[in-house]
């Protein structure tokens, strides 16, 4: 799929992405007012542009740069870069409705990352070694808190990159990283994550796992890092998807203090080692019992035992930008949801060519829990295939909880239209398919035996298909009212339909 970006902007890192956004109205704002990273920064952006499942009132708004962070005169903080689907689309040069197709094609045209010399890596312009006198990551980097009750300051948009100690294969993912001390960061793994498999292998051998955390990178890397199996199985380096998105390889650089690679054009890199057989309580410094706001809109519980990264170095660009996000914001919806759309599109097209027209993982579903599939029944033989497509969607993304099926005349990117289809083309007793007892995602608080006697263990759910499509033989009875096609520009100059 071809991409069209403004001819004067070459997006290849965070700063060039911001330069692109500044060519549009209402996509980027800055403030010089001093802000406290301890909950105040996120409290501001909650109103400005967080969206998603954040507590109301909130809205979709511009990305926001805080130029004056209290206690950190040399570091700016950016929030909300990906918190708008339109903004993501602009950074990739495609209509927002086509992002899933673009990501799908990038998986098929992946380009492996390459390693460049250290002297060419801007992420190492400034180097702080943990062995330096007075080294303290808490005074070097303004890791924000989302709320006053968070377990501690968190890095929320760190691209965690490490290698399988047995095969050398690499993986990049985003994890919950809580600052625990001057040179320690706890790392929470949802069960099954690939980096955790690497950590376990190293620990079983009695070794530390070298790891880097790159913060402030090309949005293509942030989106690509959120693909999951089966689209990207163990051993698949998601950085190659970012390469496919941009049409050129992501550049890496060897760490200055650990045997791991970092993203060469990152604003900030934290280098460290996951220490074997060492765990801490996530809220050991605050005793709140809470971790931080997670994507479903609730604050996660602090874990009693989480692995620890021993920090060995921090490197960064001059006057770096620390990028952060609010857990339940639309930033998560876009990072998780668009790759999910791509994964579903890839699988259903192979099994049912031409049947599924598009897929959307909307904001109310957090990008993980809900998918809307738009299908086109071309004959009576297609009746029932819509439900097969839904089953394929569950296979493509195991953490999916609900699938809505709609016809081709329904705008799947408009939840008003989706709910209209559910209102007029759905009957609960014949249009709902329940799939109980399936493992899903542990951060959904309703997936617990205390909520339903049908749930045997935390993280198990009853998945559901809501078939809001018209039976093929009744399609003539469900034609939407047809209006006169007119040239609105005659009445409102510049109007675009």
Give the amount of beta strand, in percent. Answer: 15-25%
Note the total helix count. 12
Report the strand count: 23
How far do the termini sit from each other? 23 Å
Briefly note the structural class of the backbone. Answer: alpha+beta
Task: Please state the average pLDDT score.
Answer: 95
Structure write-up:
The chain has twelve helices and 23 strands. By secondary structure, the protein is an alpha+beta fold. It is globular, with a radius of gyration of 23 Å. The two termini are 23 Å apart.
What topology emerges from the helices and strands here?
Layout (H helix, E strand, L loop, with lengths): L13 H8 L6 E4 L8 H9 L14 E4 L9 E4 L5 H8 L6 H10 L5 E2 L10 E4 L7 H4 L13 E2 L2 E6 L6 E5 L1 E6 L2 E5 L5 H11 L4 E7 L3 H6 L14 H8 L4 E4 L6 E3 L4 E13 L9 E4 L5 E3 L4 E11 L4 E4 L5 H22 L4 E5 L9 E6 L9 H12 L5 E6 L7 H10 L3 H4 E8 L20 E8 L30
Parallel strand pairs: 1-2, 3-18, 4-12, 20-21, 21-23
Antiparallel strand pairs: 2-3, 5-17, 6-9, 7-8, 7-11, 9-10, 10-17, 11-14, 12-13, 14-17, 15-16, 19-20, 22-23
Keywords:
23 strands; 497 residues; alpha+beta; 23% helix; 9-stranded antiparallel sheet
Summary?
This protein has 497 residues and is α+β, with helices and mostly antiparallel strands. It has helices spanning 14-21, 40-48, 85-92, 99-108, 137-140, 194-204, 219-224, 239-246, 330-351, 385-396, 415-424, 428-431; strands spanning 28-31, 63-66, 76-79, 114-115, 126-129, 154-155, 158-163, 170-174, 176-181, 184-188, 209-215, 251-254, 261-263, 268-280, 290-293, 299-301, 306-316, 321-324, 356-360, 370-375, 402-407, 432-439, 460-467.
